[in-house]
Amino acid sequence: MPAKGCLRPSGLGTRTARQSCRLSSSLHHNVETPSQHPxxxxxxDEVARLAASRRRPLTLADLLKHGRPxxxxxTLLASAxxxxxxLPARLASRIEALRNLPFIVVSNPHVSKIYSNYLHSLxxxxxxxQRRVATLEEEKQFAEVLADLVHTHANTIPILARGFLECxxxxxxxxxxxxxxxxxxxxxxxxxxxxxxxxxxxxxxxxNVSNGGRPPPTTPSNYIGVIDTxxxxxxxxxxxxxxxxxxxxxxYGVRPRLKIDGQQDAAFAHVPVHVEYxxxxxxxxxxxxxxxxxxxxEPIEVTIATSPDLPGTHMNDPVSxxxxxxxxxxxxxxxxxxxxxxxxxxxxxxxxxPSSQSITIRIRDRGGGISPGVVPNIWSYSFTTFSEVDMxxxxxxxxxxxxxxxxxxxxxxxxxxxGYGLPxxxxxxxxxxxxxxxxxxxxxxxxxxxxxxxxxxx
Length: 458
What we know:
Its main location: mitochondrion. This protein is of the alpha+beta class.
């Protein structure tokens, strides 16, 4: 009987399958043995080996390199094997990070569940790593494993939030911010890599294979996988404005006005769901501020500007003194100079093209600004501000309606009220070489500058 969390894909040899099952069962055994540290491991542990392995540099352009779907057989297999070359080390590094948490934290059932999820995902990938994906049938099975991986980790953020909430007496908030910032950025990359191949897989299936013989869903020609090569921020702003406005009408009975100016036809290559999540969070804060300050008649101004790509002004210099001028084992070399606790360079994407497009969006509101006492904490994962009673109410659907709009990205509803909105938005922006800067005039209003880095012309 296979160990819990162990899946043996059909069509592969039993030897490699047994190896991954032994990995899974041995580590699960450690978790379930009270007399041992729940994440004890030996010198020859496969997870430790993978976590310590050197990672190839990754660019957003790499995710686009297989071209527009439908892909040929050879290109689809190349995409599958490229995906397989990236994921195991990333999953293993997250397992290692969870093992290194304090004993009382990793013993928490919510944190332990996340550990088990990562272990399950790694165990399903190991058989494929032992032998390359060589046929369309194996590629199909591999896509099923990726779909399971994406589904398994869909609720990682709220589950971890609950775990750290319950352990807040036993771990310093700075350590929580440091762990979450690194972990959630790593999750962005892992999920993007998996979803990119899944999108290419489904878009490359013949009509008689997809959807039981029905034509496959049409994908806009400007999409390559999950990346929109002609994304227009102005269009995303309008979508988010409609959504946030409806929630404001539901909660407050009023709907602030929003005015868009600047280069409204600007376009670049980016991931739409990430941009939508960031803009929804920023607009939510602006709408709420103007309403609660009584200035809802004052329009929220959104200005869009493309940044000229001038020599010597790159925010993503691939060689940074912070990392010793080396990028041999990192995914990125950008220098992110932010608050204590941000992710290391291994969890961001590096840009190698000198023509990558940068777009800045300024969101200006007359909502009274941010209190000086609050400003130092806006980038922290404020898990201590949400009580267990509030958490229970959110599970029953009684959470603040305006906070709940953070779920527009699909899997964020249960972190409403946890203070995860801004730091998670910054993680999404910085992962792709962008940034978020906040300038507040207390008693007047707030300007938020969102800079997003694209990949240039595709």
